[in-house]
Amino acid sequence: MNTMDKYQVLKQYFGYDTFREGQETLIDAILAGKDVFGVMPTGSGKSLCFQIPALMMDGITLVISPLISLMKDQVAALNQAGVHAAYLNSSLTAAQYYKALEYAKAGRYPIIYVAPERLETESFLDFALHAKIAMVAVDEAHCVSQWGQDFRPSYLKIVEFIKRLPKRPIVSAFTATATKEVREDIIDILLLREPVMVTTGYDRPNLYLAVQTPKDKFAALKASLDAHPDQCGIVYCQTRKLVEDVSGRLKNGGFSVTRYHAGLSDAERQKNQDDFIYDRRLIMVATNAFGMGIDKSNVRFIIHYNMPGSIEAYYQEIGRCARDMEPGECILYYSGQDVVTNQFFIEHNKDNQELDPITRQIVSERDRMRLRKMTFYCFTNECLRDYILRYFGEYRSNYCANCANCLTQFENVDVTESAKALIGCVSACRQRYGINVILDTVHGANNAKIRQYRMKDNPYYAVQAKTSPYRLRQVMNHLILQGFLSLSDDEYTIVRLTDASKRILDEGEPVVMKMAKEQEPAIKAASGKKQRKGSAAAVDLSAPDQELFQQLRALRMEIARDEQVPPYIVFSDKTLVHMCVAKPRTKAAMLAVPGVGEFKFGKYGERFLECILTQATP
Ligand code: ADP
Ligand code: MG
């Protein structure tokens, strides 16, 4: 057991001087013997909330974590910081596993990461029932909930396991996802006892948010990557095929790129993920299979080549951006086809085939509702951040100054004519069709559905031929958001009239919409006002400091190679930037740099000091 207080542990092992919001409350509660539940966004520092008490309590902390990569990473980081930690999962050979258990029995590890599947194995129980388990920390706790994004049945074993222990340990749970249902599920299923709850804000103010509707997505992507050659980021695509296509074209274009999707072999996926994490490849093109537990701190941009199916998924994916709290950019490329593909995914969701018909219907209704809210995100002219935070139940001012909408000039445009046409068309076809048919009709399209439904006979056919499909969709979404039209909840999402419809159609009420002044506002706002700058976190460094930064980075890479760990585990970019600014020349000064603890100083401090001394002395 450790006799240091929590501030000393924070400094000594992690190199930080101050706690972040929520951390202290949770740590104090655990040390007082209470269950806790931390709902904090990705990158906010949940790990420290269980790691610090683990180092201070008598007994072992078991950390349950869903992914092997995640465990490996955290255990590597702990060992780098001088903490003995181990993981027990299927990536170990039998010999390695028993060796680790043996060390665990001998009391070598205050922290042990374990996969939920292991909890019920005989060998593990044999250890756990005889060891002193002080706490079970459930990381990514949303995995216990069927409402969550990544339900894992093996997580249900946790409770059974805890029940079998001779003495109930403290149970702590942590997640970044928490809509109300998921939150309640976690407390109920894990049987948390009057947990001390901390819910910190969902906001990630350092992330710039934008939606763009490029005509040629690949050209837009290439232009964006060209403008920021040495930055690292993720490009999310909707399908494996698209991942292949986009990564292949980027590779041919000479970009430092790799790829990830469920169709690759385990070995290749692992290799590509490592290439990205170890900075050997800058750009990762991937499906949503990639990223859970990716703790790489210097991801500078996340581009969504397609719109994801829900705000939950989107926020989780962009949560991997800029975890070092330096500026990062999250750009979503929207196209109408994305909606169609997502609808297809919902209708053909294999996971749902096993559900009984009623549950299946509820689940797909919920998914359609989520998709609709995601689509509205792409069309709103209000603050994008505010839209997301409101979705998660947080209310604040409708202005963040760091999203495309807040940075775009808007003007009020009269769209009464388009609105009348859309509502009139819905009325004339007796409320029988979905959004796309209505839009195609008033625009005057000539496709199979239009012919099949004889929409050319509709009095509103082609009355808005001169208005762009994108603008018509904007107006349609506006009408739905304002309650002038509504959508049926079934799988056909039919456009219906509301009590308010007639105010526009018959009573001459005008419809005015806030529209961006330029034609393609988001792109201009993104490329004009908010340039992603130079390398990594070194955004505001002077030229000589930039050079020092590059030197320190090279040194870090060298060490990372020798020790076979990702560079950010040696020191984060942010820590290097601090070194460039503070230029510490003594041990004491070096220890004052955030991210430099005693242990790391002992390992690398002198080499970094030397590098700074030679570089910074004129
Ligand atoms: P989460 O699990 O909430 O997504 P992590 O625990 O992985 O976040 O922490 C994200 C980053 O924040 C890590 O690099 C971690 O070292 C850093 N961090 C955590 N707590 C602090 C703190 N008090 N001061 C500075 N950095 C911190
Ligand atoms: Mg975490």
What does this structure look like?
β3, α5 (94-105) and β4 (111-114) form a beta-alpha-beta unit. The chain has 26 helices and 17 strands. The longest helix has 23 residues, at 357-379. 45% of the residues lie in helices and 12% in strands. The radius of gyration is 27 Å and the shape is globular. The strands form 4 sheets. It has a 7-stranded parallel beta sheet with strand order 3-4-2-5-6-1-7, sandwiched between helices. It is an alpha/beta fold and 618 residues long. Magnesium ion is lined by residues 46-47, 139.
Question: What does the overall shape look like?
Answer: globular
Cα distance, first to last residue?
A: 47 Å
- The secondary structure category is alpha/beta
Largest sheet: 7 strands, parallel
* Sequence of strands across the biggest β-sheet: 3-4-2-5-6-1-7
Mean pLDDT: 89
Helix content: 40-55%
Spatial extent as radius of gyration: 27 Å
The ligands bound in this entry are: adenosine-5'-diphosphate, magnesium ion
A few lines on this structure:
The protein has 26 helices and 17 strands.
